[in-house]
Amino acid sequence: MKKTVLAGALSIACFTGGFGLQANAQVNTQVNVQEVDVASIIHPKQAVAAVIPLQSMTYQDLYKKLLISKLAIDERGIVTTKNSITAKFSVDPTWSAQEQKEFKELYGNAMQIKFTPSGNSFKGEVLEKGKWLPLDKEDLNDIIKEMFEDEPIDLKPGGYFTDSIGHWAESYIQVLYQFDIINGTSATTFNPNGKVTRGQLASMIFRAAGLDVKEDYEGPASYKDLANFPGAKEVAILEEYGLLDIFDGANFEPNTPATREEMAYVTAIYLEGMGYDVSKVSKNNPFTDKSKMRQETVEAIGLLKQLGVIDGVNGQFNPKGNLTRAEFSKILTLSLVLLDDEE
Asked: For 245-260, how does the pLDDT look when each residue is reduced to its tens digit (9 = 90+)?
């Protein structure tokens, strides 16, 4: 009999604060707009990770912290290049007309703060009236303190993947890396456009579910080709929970690239197994190529589409296409956010 409730579930509460960076600004209307304190425009209750004194925070740590912030995940307010990070804080529509006017006179529709490497740390600039102006050490310290309130989220070593800087999925990649769900292909590379194998898909879902081989393993999987696969016990546990029913052959083929419909099925079952109430969500599948989907994946794909976790191109999902590491990083991160929101 298959198990129906996932044991040892990941504490999604760790995302509280991890996605806590807010761009709520408070402009001091009593002073000349030229004297607006940049640090005061960032909400004092922001939270991403533990405060690190500016003098000991590296540029790479700043990069990683910003990428797991709400500003990056929800608002897409972080822009990175090989040599800089720019944080964009938008006008708050709840401000008074005068506050919005003064903000826009200085910063336009968004205040931009650019960070660049400087020795073992970094320096900062703010864009005012079209010109980049340097921030002195005191202002920069104030901004960093406002951005990173004391929260129990410690950065893992590594994770500065040079081949993912500026990639559309870099925030999703960083979130999963920080929560031990994914790894790079080396200490400095992630290979975002590489294919996800069935074995890798199983490993990432296993970690996201907070399962433990020592506690949850009850016996080998039914698949016949796992003798030399390092994740054989993980596969066995996931099979017991019913997450791998889409792989219904005699062999699991762990090194075969996973298809998009296989990923969708596994992710949908994962969400349900983690307690997400899928009964309240439409499972309507709007993709024009659903006739090419395996019948058991049609509703799973529809569910993820309605939840905003997946999308297609020109109305098609391409169910038999392969999944990239970047694509699944986004899909799994958004799934975790859904679980956090429901909790």
From this structure: 999 999 999 999 999 9
